[in-house]
Design a protein that fits this description.
With 486 residues, the protein is an alpha/beta fold. The chain contains 19 helices and 15 strands. Bound molecules: pyridoxal-5'-phosphate and iron/sulfur cluster.
Length: 486
């Protein structure tokens, strides 16, 4: 996906403020209230900028009866008008697929209401609660997990007070996630009235705010807001960037202001088909966030939300993305891929498999690194290890011996997977449950010689031929025995 690595505004692309809003003044553009008031909420407004195919118009209008649209002029300016599949637009504009899948998925896939002691609070984990104080956002993301609340009236003050009371009388809550909707769409005074009530609770240690405003309405992050927020430390903000083209100078300035107010910033992305479901896009996003001093925190599997089926990716895609990040870019830039368990199980981290074998009897572990190389590591065993039992890279050099040659599989046999190599198994053997299906991409001939090593005689023992090959003072036989120990 070439376009993902291109900076937001280039001469050939029809995008940017100059393309969409040539007559708007700097003062208007920088005024978050102007931005908020001029959000596109009707299809007719969007059509003025981006024509909608006639055949799809009715479907898209129907979608908006179900889930409202909101696009700030600023966010629209990031859209490439020449790309119908633009990843920015796709996040906020209704498309035919949303209509087609309007009945697929659930209203409340995470059971947030089931785990709700009072309206607006979800208390799923022992020491922290989610508090939904608003159902208004600067932009409405078509894949939002809380689509269900986005067409309700404003959250009444009395309801917010009841949420605060619940936290006050629940001493085990030490961390609150103030979310919505988007809390930063409130005026500074109103938000302060809520934060000050929370801060008055002695056992509440951490206040976290979840907000997409730095992405969708960065003008909102003004000095007045930052000065107010800084009074309520320790306060953290989780932001929600999904695509490298959202990392604009305006967004960077907003994040910089928040950071200077002493607020640590972490990012939560959702893995979305057609938006960011490939390694180059996620690498550009995560390394770009680091430059803005925003740490990638979570990468979410898209929830089974009604009308968002077209955004969902297979779980293997998330694993592939993380595998393309870990080791390749700074460890600080690698988020944790999580699936929010349906019905309220909470976030479950899902990772590529790097621990290929764990032989607890022999305290031996086989690890795979980011380059798909294998390493043997020995846990403490409380006894002296024989000299042959070395930790280190697991490799069998491509030295041809007569046995190896004669037992080599046909040239068209499948390459062994990493797990098969760790097992020293023949390539054709089914791989174990820990396999991620990867094959040996390093071009070594491990599989060939392993296959030879693994031939089994009538007595069930491996058949090992004579070889002159010696490695680090121990014989081929010893290495074969070692490989078979597991
Ligand atoms: C995500 C979430 C939290 C916070 O989880 P962390 O892993 O601590 O970031 C808390 N409560 C609910 C209901 C959540 O969905
Ligand atoms: S900003 Fe957050 S809460 Fe609002 S629509 Fe987007 S994902 Fe949902």
């Amino acid at each position: 996906m070439e376009r993902t690595l291109v900076p937001p505004v280039v001469a050939t692309r029809r995008s940017g403020r100059a393309h969409y809003y040539p007559d708007v003044t700097d003062a208007q553009w920088a005024d978050w209230k102007w931005q908020f008031r001029h959000r596109l909420t009707k299809l007719e407004e969007l059509e003025k900028f981006l024509p909608i195919p006639a055949a799809e118009r009715a479907l898209r209008a129907d979608v908006l009866r179900d889930f409202r649209m909101g696009i700030t002029p600023y966010y629209l300016s990031l859209v490439d008008a020449d790309d119908p599949a633009d990843p920015i637009l796709r996040q906020v504009a209704p498309i035919a697929e949303e209509y087609l899948f309007r009945d697929v998925g659930e209203e409340d896939p995470l059971g947030e209401e089931r785990y709700s002691p009072v309206p607006g609070i979800t208390h799923r984990y022992p020491d922290r609660v989610l508090m939904v104080i608003s159902n208004s956002c600067a932009i409405y993301c078509r894949y939002c997990t809380r689509k269900r609340i986005m067409y309700e009236d404003a959250v009444p003050d009395v309801e917010i007070d009841r949420m605060v009371e619940y936290i006050a009388k629940t001493p085990r809550v030490r961390d609150v996630i103030v979310s919505g909707g988007d809390p930063l769409t409130y005026g500074t005074k109103k938000l302060e009235s809520i934060l000050s009530k929370l801060r008055a609770i002695p056992h509440l240690e951490i206040i976290r705010i979840g907000s997409r405003v730095p992405v969708s309405l960065p003008q909102r992050i003004d000095d007045e807001l930052c000065e107010m927020l800084a009074k309520y430390h320790p306060l953290w903000i989780n932001v929600h960037f999904n695509h490298p083209r959202e990392l604009t100078p305006d967004a960077a300035a907003a994040c910089d202001k928040l950071s200077r107010a002493g607020i640590p910033l972490n990012n939560q992305s959702v893995l979305l088909k057609g938006v960011n479901d490939d390694v180059p896009t996620m690498r550009a996003l995560c390394t770009g966030l680091m430059k803005m001093r925003v740490r990638p925190y979570y990468l979410y599997q898209c929830d089974q939300i009604r009308g968002a089926e077209h955004f969902r990716t297979p779980v293997s895609k998330g694993i592939e993305v993380i595998e393309g990040l870990r080791g390749h870019i700074s460890g600080l830039a690698v988020p944790t891929f999580v699936i929010d368990a349906p019905g309220g199980g909470g976030k479950v981290p899902v990772m590529p498999q790097y621990l290929l074998q764990h032989d607890t009897k022999n305290q031996r572990v086989v690890l795979r690194n980011f380059q798909d190389r294998l390493f043997v590591y020995h846990e403490p065993s409380g006894r002296a290890r024989p000299i042959g039992e070395r930790s280190g890279e697991l490799e069998v050099p491509a030295v041809a011996s007569p046995i190896v040659e004669s037992a080599a599989p046909a040239a068209n046999a499948p390459a062994p997977t990493a797990v098969e190599r760790a097992n020293g198994a023949a390539p054709a053997k089914a791989s174990s449950g820990t396999s991620n299906g990867k094959t040996n991409g390093n071009g070594k001939s491990n599989g060939r010689s392993r296959a030879a090593d693994q031939r089994v005689g009538a007595d069930g023992k491996p058949v090992v031929g004579k070889s002159r090959w010696v490695h680090r003072g121990h014989s081929r036989e010893e290495r074969v025995r070692k490989a078979n120990e597991t």
